[in-house]
Design brief:
By secondary structure, this protein is mostly helical. It has one domain (21-372). Helix content is 68%, strand content 3%. The chain is built from 17 helices and three strands. The protein has helices spanning 3-10, 16-22, 25-45, 54-72, 76-81, 83-100, 120-136, 141-144, 147-165, 170-187, 191-209, 214-224, 235-246, 258-261, 273-306, 310-334, 352-370; strands at 102-104, 107-113, 116-118. A three-stranded antiparallel beta sheet has the order 1-2-3. A hairpin with a 2-residue loop joins strand 1 and strand 2. Helix 6 packs antiparallel against helix 7.
Length: 383
């Protein structure tokens, strides 16, 4: 790279058109294909109609896509300066939801904003990624070995995890904690320190089990033995497994899924949307969808590897891991591999706040890609 090009990048003087050309349109195409899969699955879940799920989902994705491109134009250094203010807003929203949030199915997780119900814990994950990336920006190997240096970011993880647990939302709290651990490792934390923490958590699991809410213990008991209550707590996962198995290798065909269309499958438009797809397109269609999701995760990791600055690398790593955890938890849940946790399949499951939050994250990821050669070298760029 020539000196002129480096100055051009450092001064962020390249124009809007140049930035637009740096957007990864192939990655954007992959997201559009995934949203198309979501449209087809939601169209089928509604019995062969765009209403009430697919049409709304398309409008939300179109809005999210425009928002993603707009955020991609924002200098990553400006986003870095907003990291801790965004974190503070995220924590404030978590406190707000505990005081005046909407209660549903025994949990207080949503607040009403702009005529739509939002789940602040989803936004908090992105805010946490930005904050930890800002803290670990330019952290040396020696500083990563200093326990005092690690106390503030550890508290930054524990505060939202604790607030999310009070909602209660065990699944999202665990994902938030895992995101924090990923950023710590990505910044250079000695793996054995994190291993000791994980070991301590595992030892504490039996004690923690007795402090869970009744519905949370019921989910774990159902996971271990769903047949013990086939018409109650075990109904959802049993019907999901039936739908997955009935699809066979090639599936029953589009709009031909009996479990979904005869309303045996619960929450088919949200948590169990993967099951709708698997029943109609079988093992082949399921593997194709999982392959697409995997390519999107790997694409995010590639953006992290290509970024020249530590902040961008950690942000891209965190956003990619967040997407992976969404996918892993949802698919493992509907297969019965882990307890049901109420985690949507991104860009496929129906839901406004989840769609917007995911696309907001992809917008920041794309900003990392567009500004991948930017360096935080000048004093005014220090975080």
């Amino acid at each position: 790279m020539s000196l002129l090009e480096r100055r051009l990048i450092r001064d962020t003087s390249f124009d809007f058109t140049a930035k637009l050309l740096r957007v990864s349109w192939l990655y954007t195409l992959l997201l559009c294909i995934l949203a198309g899969v979501g449209y087809a699955a939601l169209y089928s879940a509604a019995g062969g109609s765009p209403e009430p799920y697919a049409a709304k989902q398309t409008l939300r994705f179109a809005f999210g896509l425009g928002m993603m491109v707009a955020i991609a134009m924002i200098d990553i250094r400006f986003i870095a300066r907003l990291a801790w203010p965004a974190y503070a807003v995220g924590v404030a929203l978590l406190v707000l939801v505990l005081r005046m949030g909407h209660v549903g199915k025994g949990a207080q997780r949503w607040i009403e904003l702009g005529g739509m119900q939002w789940q602040p814990s989803e936004l908090m994950k992105l805010c946490l990624i930005l904050a930890l990336a800002a803290w670990f920006h330019k952290a040396s190997w020696e500083r990563m070995g200093n326990l005092l240096f690690l106390v503030p970011p550890a508290l930054a993880v524990l505060v939202p995890v604790g607030l999310i647990l009070k909602q209660p939302n065990l699944g999202t709290a665990l994902i938030t904690a895992m995101l924090g651990g990923t950023l710590f490792l990505g910044a250079g934390l000695r793996w054995w320190k994190l291993a000791l923490l994980v070991a301590a958590i595992v030892v504490a699991v039996p004690v923690a089990y007795h402090h869970l809410h009744d519905y949370q213990r019921a989910r774990i008991d159902t996971f271990l033995n769903p047949e013990s209550d086939p018409l109650g707590a075990g109904y959802n996962i049993i019907q999901s497994k039936i739908a997955l198995g009935s699809g066979g290798v090639w599936g029953k065909g589009f709009l031909q899924g009996t479990q979904a269309h005869l309303n045996f499958l619960p929450e088919k438009q949200t948590d169990f949307i993967f099951t709708v797809w698997a029943e109609e397109f079988g093992l082949v269609g399921s593997l194709a969808l999982m392959g697409l999701l995997g390519v999107i995760v790997l694409g995010g990791m590639a953006i992290a590897l290509r970024c020249r600055n530590q902040f961008g690398r950690l942000v891209a790593l965190g956003i990619s891991m967040n997407f992976f955890l969404y996918v892993f938890v949802n698919i493992a849940m509907v297969m019965g591999a882990i307890p049901v946790g109420g985690v949507p399949l991104p860009l496929v499951s129906h839901g406004g706040s989840a769609m917007i939050t995911v696309m907001l994250g992809f917008g920041v990821l794309m900003s990392v890609h567009v500004h991948r050669d930017v360096e935080f070298g000048n004093s005014q760029d220090e975080l």
